Each structure stands twice: as C-alpha cells, then as structure tokens.
Amino acid sequence: MSSVLTNNSAMVALQTLKSINRNLEMTQSEISTGKTINTAKDNSAIWAISKTMESDVKGFKGISDSLALGATTVGVARKAAETVTNLLTQIKGKIVAAQEQNVDRAKIQTDIGALRGQIASVTGAAQFNGLNMVKGTDDVKILSSLDRDSTGGVSASQITVARQDLTTAAGVYGSVALVPTTAYGTSTLADGVTATAVTTAATGTTAALTFAAAAVIGDTASINVAGNTINYTATATDSATDRAAFFVGQINALGLAGVTAANTAGVLTLSNTNAFESVALTASGTGTGTLVVTNVNGFAAASPTSGTINQRAETIDFSTTAGVSEGNGFKVTVGSTSFDYIAGKNETMEDVAKGLKTAIDSNLPVGVTTKVTQDATTGAWSLSVDDATGGQALTLNTTQGGTASGGLFGLDNIDVTTTANATSALSNIETMINTSIDAAASLGSSQGRIDTQADFVSELTDALKAGIGSLVDANLEETSARLQALQVQQQLATQALSIANQAPQNLLSLFR
C-alpha cells in the first residue's frame, strides 16, 4: 500500500544515512585526534586506565628530572673526592721526602700547607644547587621511582646516598657520659696507672729469673728469648750468681734490639725497652738448681714457665663486640694532656683507634709515639702509646652526644718539621688517603646506581607510553580504509533517500 502520509522507504533510508553519518563522524574524529578513545564516552573503562597511566608518565618525567639532578650532585662530590685523593697523595710524597734528614723540612711544610689549602678549597666548592655531599654526615635521599600496588595505592621510592665528610673539623666532645653494656675497651697499662671506663691490668716490661742457691753437676737450665735458646749444664758446683752471669753474657751477646740482661746477686733480670714489640720468653730448669720466673705477664711461679715480656708502650684494646654510634666521644689522656676523637656515622673501632692516634700525633707530647695494631687472632684493634720519658699516665674516657670529627681530621696539624712528627705523619696520611678513596668509591657506586635507575625510568616511561598507545591510539591504515567505505555508503544512502522521497510524486500519475 502506498501512502502520501507515511513514507516507510524514506524513513528507512533516513535512519541508514544517520547511522552512516555517525560512523563517518567517529572515523573523522579518529583521524583528526589520532585516538580511538578520546573521551570517557568512547569507552569509560579504557579511558580511565589510560588516564591513570598518563598521570604515571607525568610523574616519571619528574622522577627523571630528580635523578638527573641527583646524579649531577653526586658526580660533583665524587670528582671532589677523587681530587682530594690526588692532593693527599701529593702530600704523602712530601711526607716521605721529609723522612730524610738532609732536606729542608720547612720548605716541605710550606708545600704541604699549600696542598692543605687546596683540599679545603675543593671540599668547600664541591656543591651543586647548594648541596655539598663531602661535608656533614646526614644522608641524602633522591626520588627514584613511583610504585603502584594492586589496590591503586602509590608510594615513592628513594635512593639513599651517604654523605662522605672530607672536612678537617675536630668535632665536639659530648657531655653525656656513655656507660655501655659492653665495655668499649680494656687497657693494658704500666704498673700503678689507672684508667676511667676501661679495665686496667698491672704488667711489666721486665722479667726476673731466680736460680736456686747452688747447683750440682748435671743440673740444667734453658732460656729462650725472642726465639733464641741458651742452654746451661752445670759441670761443677755453681752458685746462682755464676749461672746468672753466664746467661747475662750469652743474652747480651745476641744483640737483641731493646733487650738487655743484668745480674744482681744471682737474679737474672731481663728488660724490654722496645716501644711496640713484646718479647717471648721461655725458661726451664732441672735438678737442685731450679729456675723460678717471677714478675712477667703470663708467668706462674713454677718451672718450667713461658710468657711474654711486654712492650714498653701502654695499650688500649678496643672491644670486638661493642658498637660505635655517631657522636660517641673517646678521650685519651696522656699525662696531663687530653686528646679527643668523636666517631662519625657507620664507623668502627678501627676508625676510633686510628682517629685517637691522629689526635695524639697532631700535638705529640715530648717523647711520645703511637701505633695502631690489630690482633691476628681476635681481630681486636689496639692503640699503643709509648712514653720514652716515662711517668705519664694513660686514661680513656667515653661520652655520647657529640659532633663527629671530620673525615680528614688531623690534616690541619700535619707537621714534618721534626723527625718524630714526620714519622707519625706518614701513617696518618695513609689513613686519610684510605678515607678519601673509600669516599670516592662510595659516591661512585651511588652515582652508578642513580644512572642505572635513570635509564630504567626512561625505558619504563617509553613502555608506559607504548601501552597507552595500544589502548587508545587509532589504527590509521584501518581508519583510512573505513573512511573511504563510509564515504561511498554516505553517497549511496543519500541517493537511496532521494529515491525514497520521489515515491509520493509517483502517486500523482495515478490521478491524471
């Protein structure tokens, strides 16, 4: 049935044309924007995911900037530490030259002063945007990543870079007494000397060997001093004085450095005047001429016996179990003069022992020399202080809450104008060089980690961009083909609508 009131064909053609125009509009939008999903109405779920990922990309761009700034800052500090190492090495060369007697030490000291000034200049200028990584002990945190969990929560990750203090500050000794659960050290001191905060032990640098009043033929005695064995066998009835005199002659003939023997009414006395070297002693005897050893560390009043004649230097043996915290202060008093070292972050007993040695060497009392050693068996570090003049007490005190000494503490006081100071400076400069090497290595490691993270963030950002593109970007090849097809469909639909609109006109022919 045909009707002039209702044109079904035209309505169908019109709806078809509207659908084609709508698809054509979407296709043209994809071409103009390059995106299949450009607004939330296109696909709300995918649009939300893409926007979240786009916000992460923006965040990672900021992280890249943070890492670049951090890498540059750490790089400046690393270069400064390397430069300081080179300057300290030059100072070491000057100190080595000062070990020679026939040199102008005053001129060498002038050169050392100039190099010290250059080190101060380097550490002072080693800053980027106001941040100096070779001053102070506070860690520096650098933003390195944004971590998103399965619930959508976001947290920031950071790379912690430890500052490497290469200043020469003496530090500030704390005022709060430190009473550790585990003693910080024990002190091996000369007879009659007391110490605070450490355990004292009375020892001596002599050994007295007493012979029985008389010996008969066949009685023996044997003494081993520093690995040299002397044997005696009685061939007659000898007095104690005769046997002591025999050993005195034999021992002194050995020419052992710092070791002397004396005979006083049949008592053989061995003395050790070596500052930093103990002497092993073994003594035994048989028969009626029994040999008794007294007054030597480790010996019992019996025969045979063995032990050690202590070095002349007094020692502080530091704990192998107690920890060291930043701000812990250690004060060694030699006679009436005190020397401080305040521990920095992550330091050990080795650092404390070497720091105290540097402090003492910076203002050496007359006749005093120092040495730091480590026990091969226990691993304990010890500070030995020798007083060639004798009579100066040695004590150790500890506190907490101080300000740490600089990593190159003692550099300002290096003095090679005297033989004693030049000798002590040689070991101290080695400690400082190791400190600066460790600082440069630590900063270099941190810079390498930052660079690696920066590369990862860059690659991750690219991956996120690619992921977003795969979700929302239009396939332009497909879109182009679809555009042409829709344009043809539009033309055909327009033609169909035109034909449908002509149908009522055809009805007029029925009424002619």
Overview of this protein structure:
This protein has seven helices and 23 strands. With 512 residues, it is of the alpha+beta class. It has four domains: 8-34 and 477-511; 46-162 and 435-466, Up-down Bundle (f41 fragment of flagellin, N-terminal domain), CATH 1.20.1330; 176-201 and 315-405, no CATH class; 209-309, no CATH class. The chain has a five-stranded mixed β-sheet, covered by helices on one side. A four-stranded antiparallel β-sheet has the order 5-23-19-20. Strands 13-14-8-16 form a four-stranded antiparallel β-sheet, covered by helices on one side. Strand 21 and strand 22 form a beta hairpin. Helix 1 packs antiparallel against helix 7 (476-507), helix 2 (44-98) runs antiparallel to helix 3 and helix 2 packs antiparallel against helix 6 (419-472). The longest helix has 55 residues, at 44-98. The radius of gyration is 44 Å and the shape is rod-shaped. Mean pLDDT is 82; it is low at 187-202 and 295-304.
Please describe the topology of this protein:
Elements: H1 8-33, H2 44-98, H3 105-125, E1 127-128, E2 131-132, E3 140-148, E4 154-161, E5 176-177, E6 185-190, E7 199-203, E8 206-211, E9 214-215, E10 220-225, E11 228-233, E12 238-239, H4 240-254, E13 259-264, E14 267-272, E15 279-286, E16 291-294, E17 305-309, E18 314-318, E19 329-334, E20 337-342, H5 349-361, E21 368-374, E22 381-387, E23 394-400, H6 419-472, H7 476-507
Parallel strand pairs: 6-7
Antiparallel strand pairs: 1-2, 3-4, 5-23, 6-18, 8-14, 8-16, 9-12, 10-11, 10-15, 13-14, 15-17, 18-22, 19-20, 19-23, 21-22
